[in-house]
Amino acid sequence: MELDPHVLHVATRWLHVAAMATAFGGALTVLALSVRPNGGTAAAVLGVALRYEWMFWGAAGLLAMTGIGNLAAFGGALLGPATNWGTTLLLKLGSVLALVILSLPRTLAVARMSAQTRATAAGSVVTLRNLYGATASAFAVILAFAIWLAHG
Amino acid sequence: MKLVTWSLATFHATVFVLAIVLFVYSRDALGAGLSGLNTFVGLGLFVALWATTYVTTSRALEGLDLIGSARDRSGYARRAFRWGAANGMAFLAVLGIVAVLVAVSNTRPGQVASGILFPGLFIAPIAFVVSAAVGGIVGAIFGIIDLGLFAVAGLTVGETEPTV
After folding, report:
1. For B57-98, what is each residue's pLDDT tens digit?
2. Which domain, by its residues, includes B144?
3. A134 — contact with chain B (CB < 8 Å)?
4. Does the CA dihedral A23-A25-A27-A29 come out positive or negative?
5. Which of A2, A65, A91, A116 to probe the B interface (max B CBs under 10 A)?
6. Within-domain flag for B159
7. Buried b (16+ CB within 10 A) or exposed e, A74-90
8. Cβ contacts (< 8 Å) between A74 and chain B: which residues?
9. Running DSSP on this structure, what letter comes out for residue A29?
10. Which of A3, A5, A89 is the closest to B25 by Cβ?
């Protein structure tokens, strides 16, 4: 039985949106937890951040994979980089690449904090707040590009 | 499975693919390239690259504590080069097996040996050498990038080990 290409494209798009929601929503969740912590929750915030990092990289791989699948669905009708749409796509791809590259130090920093015995110090929560604030902001910019590309 | 291995492997696979897509699209050649690629095959190729990169990255990091030991980080670039070459060959092997199976399924039984298997045996050694070279270069580049990003995270190579 032949798989309908349209069904595959819709499934790919849904997977892309689900991965983006997981990555963006997770970053917002860690940010929200780290905004007003008290002494007892610092370790809990770090624990959530550590679990988020596992999910983030899974989502990043899925986003890259399905993102290219979405572009492949355009085939020869894909608009060129000289168009407004193409320039926005270049900006989006560049933003995604920058976010992925800068996410590695974030993951390493979280892993390092969790390995340290005094990771529950208030300073680590401030660091987490800054890291996930920057991550959530980058995701918001990428989401704005994605919305413009889909509906602009 | 360790977080550092999982993040580094996915980082390498996604940055490699994204950088190629960004470069090709900026040259206005992506549409033509993707139009000849079946979506299912494209998704499968990425999963294959992700899997081989995970396996080779976990082998490269075997016995290394990149978070806790500066000495281990200093030996990382050499391993990145070696296991990058292994990843290039592993990915080529996956591509080769899929290509041979597809070709065999589309060929008359009497022509499989002379039309596919013998040419394949002749081309395979050369292709493996080229894929090892390309993989090694990509691995070395990622090794350098990784060490730079370790430094951004406060994990430098040159710092002295604490003596206990």
Report:
1. 999 999 888 888 888 888 898 999 999 999 999 999 999 888
2. 3-152
3. no
4. negative
5. A65
6. no
7. eeeebbbbeeeebebbe
8. 31, 34
9. H
10. A89
In this predicted model, what pLDDT tens digit does every residue of B31-55 receive, in sequence order? 777 777 777 888 889 999 999 999 9
Residue B127 lies in a domain: yes
At position A125, the amino acid (one-letter code) is V
Say whether A108 and B149 touch across the interface (CB within 8 A). yes
Residue type, B87: N
pLDDT tens across the length of chain A (152 residues): 567 778 888 999 999 999 999 999 999 999 999 987 565 578 888 999 999 999 999 999 999 999 988 888 887 788 889 999 999 999 999 999 999 999 999 999 999 888 876 555 667 888 999 999 999 999 999 999 999 998 87
Q: Per the structure, how many domains does chain B have?
A: 1
pTM of the entire structure?
0.90
B157 inside domain: no
DSSP B37: S
